[in-house]
Amino acid sequence: MSRKLFIAGNWKMNLSRARSSDLAAALVEEIGKEAAVDTAVCPPSCYLMTVQQALGVSRIDLGAQNMWYEDQGAYTGEISADMLVDVGCKYVICGHSERRHVIGESDEVINRKVLKALSEGLNPILCVGELLEQRDGGQTMEVIRQQVTRDLEGVGASYAGGTTLADRLTIAYEPVWAIGTGRTATPDQAQEVHAAVRTLIGELYDETLAAELRIQYGGSVKPDNAAALLARPDIDGALVGGASLKAPDFAAIVRAGVELSD
Ligand code: PEP
Questions:
Q1: 78: Cβ–Cβ under 8 A, 6 or more apart, which residues?
Q2: Which of these CATH numbers, 1.20.140.10, 3.90.1150.10, 3.40.190.150, 3.20.20.70, describes 6-261?
Q3: Of 14, 28, 89, 99, which cross-links 105 as Cys (Cβ 3.0–4.6 Å)?
């Protein structure tokens, strides 16, 4: 089963309007025509429209870093799925570890976001990952199993236009101890968890869906470690934080994916 690699950049709370636009324009120049892998950038929400304009008709898609699960109303500071679609988003990150552990988002909230994103036509990138003490305590698989199961509760397998959950959802395995720390999971460590996530998806849905679903790795992915990670059989792309803020670095990661796709 060959899954198209998917490389997404999470810009987090960085840059300015001008720098967001410049970064998007530089990426269009470097990788804007790349068709062998799917690519997306997720800027801060206030720069979504600026970045959308800079991406233009390139092949780089737009994603948001977060959303709220209600349609509209008294949710000060929040943005709906509908609003994200309205400004051109294709993807939305749900359950990033910074939202789980800094903002305090629960699996129940993340599950509602995933359900809402899917029902409004957005493709969720669902992040899961264990804390360092959980890895050291041998709880990695249990934590990942619990997050995936809870976050996908009630999530259907089939969607409009004959698409399946595998066309719509990406799971990003992001060990929390590897995010922004410069410490990357080894390709073996990442592969082991990715394979377990795929097995779990097979149990929750079926083998076909499990074989088609893309599972990204995230956690200090850089140009010099991308190829080794992406070469592993169950690693179908990367969610890139720090290195996505530099056009040459993000482009190099995308190119590593392109070379593996040839
Ligand atoms: C992330 O933000 O999802 C991430 C993986 O960050 P970094 O690449 O900086 O570790």
A1: 67, 68, 70
A2: 3.20.20.70
A3: 99
Q: Which amino acid is at 56?
A: G
Three-state DSSP class for residue 154: coil
219 lines ligand 1 (CB under 6 A): yes
pTM exceeding 0.85: yes
Instruction: Look at residue 262 and tell me whether its pLDDT is greater than 80.
Output: no
Domain ranges of the chain: 6-261
**Full DSSP string of 171-234:** EEE--GGGTTSS-PPPHHHHHHHHHHHHHHHHHHS-HHHHHH-EEEEESS--HHHHHHHHTSTT
Mean model confidence pLDDT for the chain: 97
* Residue 172, beta-bridge partner list: 127, 216
User: Are 96 and 65 contacting, i.e. CB atoms less than 8 angstroms apart?
Assistant: yes
Mean pLDDT for the stretch of residues 213-240:
98
* Residue 235 CB less than 6 A away from ligand 1: no
Please report the atom of ligand 1 found closest to the CA of residue 244. Answer: 8
Instruction: Determine whether 174 is an active site residue.
Output: yes
**pLDDT tens-digit readout, 158-172:** 999 999 999 999 999
pLDDT, tens digit (0-9, with 9 covering 90-100), for 71-128: 999 999 999 999 999 999 999 999 999 999 999 999 999 999 999 999 999 999 999 9
Judge if the beta carbon of residue 10 lies within 6 A of ligand 1: yes
